């Protein structure tokens, strides 16, 4: 246990060094594009993604070692639905050797055994995506009857099976045109389960998703809820820019490529998940330092400002935003240890 804690401490120190020096610190990783849902705010389940490969454990080991040349990453495991991957536990174990694996899933396949093995393998955080407080709305959006009930069950199972105080369970919602009034009921559900709550802003950048006319005054409402509920842990500086992002169709400049990158199920590296067609190289075969150099060149040259999703927004809020003390406090609330068997407070 002492060796384990020393390894984690060294990893955290290296990560903090990278954070303070404005290096790459966050990687979105699509293991696969298969999914058992047909969500109307995602297109990865469409036909053009069905024949794409899944990353293997051996490939993940290469990816983990290559990324470690840059420094420890928060690696956000996604898809598709990552729990469909039969080798997910081994993948998490390989990533956790050097990095901090986190995951967003739909909750359908969560069981006590899976929760225990994922947390034992080194998973730092698991979020389940829920956008509505009623089962009818949620199930319709996900294209799967029973999706809401399984998500609620999954959140409870995950919370009951954490094995380290630093491990977190979140509910995360995509803020859209029709669910702003759903946030407070969702916060109450999270309060009952003792888990934390986060939001991200809808983006229609990738694929052929529909445009949604989101209300332009959403920030004051979300900030008032954040002040009311301690377990609403999204950074105030991040949600404080939602209204601006809606009015101006995004926030610029974008630091994707400098702060974060994306790796798809082929190993191709791009600035973000919405730029899969602009890969700068393949992490399985190419030199990592050259990939980083190309990402930084691309970031400096691009002028994209078309989204304000949490993968970029949270990092940029800390590194480049105002309200430094408030945002640092919020980041602490987002990451502080919570004793096992106890709820967030």
Question: Could you explain the architecture of this structure?
Answer:
The chain is α/β, with parallel strands linked by helices and 345 residues long. The chain contains 13 helices and nine strands. It has helices spanning 2-20, 57-68, 88-96, 112-121, 135-142, 147-160, 183-193, 218-228, 236-239, 242-248, 288-301, 310-320, 324-335, and strands at 26-30, 74-78, 100-105, 125-129, 168-175, 196-201, 260-263, 268-270, 281-282. Helix 2 packs parallel to helix 3 (88-96) and helix 3 packs parallel to helix 4. The model has no long low-confidence stretch (mean pLDDT 92).
Question: Which key features would you list for this structure?
Answer:
345 residues; alpha/beta; 9-stranded mixed beta sheet; 13 helices
